[in-house]
């Protein structure tokens, strides 16, 4: 079969590109290696409950905010979104003290200034900078150090840790993290923060249904094994299901290094480009403890709780010590009882903890791997019990590691946030959708932005390369 556009990978970026382009009348085919699309938005069932893998909350959905227009165009605003507490959607506990993040830039600065009155003016300047980054005014911020900005603009070390405390949704690295990545990872949530009443598969199902309704097709269990170039352009893809699919244009939603390996022979994709992509470092992975809570045991809490043993938010995950920081996220009760049945605990996981099992498969990693997971899960639960006493007794749990992420999302080393961005060399680490092959484009979290918000914006940027900026803006209502 032949299509206008073939998309490799059915993660969020691939599905969003498929939705946008099928809506313009182009014939679109999405190829997904797993039995279901979704990537990091996949969910899995244990008994009667459905658990998320990578999605917990999103920001900027109110009208006029940074993600509203995009989600409106994608048909995602009609999902059952639930707003988190306006006066404390994120709460950060460091040692024995807890600090709340309010929604709205001015309210955010004003509330933290109550705990740090001497930093009131600096907090307002920071809030204004967050607002600018939400409006995509970021070019100069790509070459600026996040750590340097914080240490030069705030005098209280505790406040620096508090402001960074909700950043388990990115990789904090003092030596490389760009200020723009730090701002973008926080700004939309401060605009407004939302959970789904249900799991992330609701987003996947809505996009997949939209693609099919608009004439597109999604084929699962179709892992791309080779992208074939003829006369300087890709002509077709050979898949693990034995099928060959021809296309006029190709979009890859998988890691750029994996994409390069699919192009086995090329006159366009030179070795210098392949080496450059292969040498890029990846962010860390995540360890997740998904807890199944006994009925009527734990009241739902309408915020995300971040907990740190010590004020070392930027470095705790590098220490050879018990888990020092964890995100506690709660699932909205769907039965109206007011009691949650599910809680997720997330903490960074370095690849060093997993690499000895690099050549193993899911379910066949052995007893030592199981022991390692049980130890880390125990440490996460112990830390979470500072906020939820008795959590261990009221629950049973399932775990996932960086290896799990690698095997299900095809992300090298189980990277949770894609390629590591570096303010010292932004042009090398923040990739363009364009590749040396004219009809091969990239999308997804490995380009400039990660997370639900970032991948969505990147999908629109990728589609703009195809449609042309003016036509794209017209068709997507000025996004």
List keywords for this structure.
479 residues, alpha/beta, seven-stranded mixed sheet, 15 helices, 33% helix
Summarize the structure.
With 479 residues, the chain is an alpha/beta fold. The chain contains 15 helices and 19 strands.
List the helices and strands and how they pair.
Layout: E1 2-8, H1 12-23, E2 28-31, E3 43-46, E4 49-52, E5 58-59, H2 68-74, E6 81-83, E7 90-94, E8 97-101, H3 105-115, H4 120-134, H5 146-153, H6 157-164, H7 179-191, E9 193-196, H8 201-213, E10 217-219, E11 224-230, E12 233-239, E13 244-252, H9 256-262, H10 271-278, E14 285-293, E15 304-308, E16 325-330, E17 342-349, H11 367-384, E18 395-400, H12 402-409, H13 426-429, E19 440-442, H14 451-467, H15 469-475
Parallel strand pairs: 1-2, 1-13, 2-10, 7-15, 13-19
Antiparallel strand pairs: 3-4, 5-9, 6-9, 7-8, 11-12, 12-13, 14-17, 14-18, 15-16, 16-17
Helix pairs in contact: 1-8, 1-14, 3-4, 4-7, 14-15
Overall mean pLDDT: 93
Structural class: alpha/beta
Q: How much helicity do the residues have?
A: 25-40%
**Which descriptor suits the 3D outline?**
globular
CA-atom Rg in angstroms: 22 Å
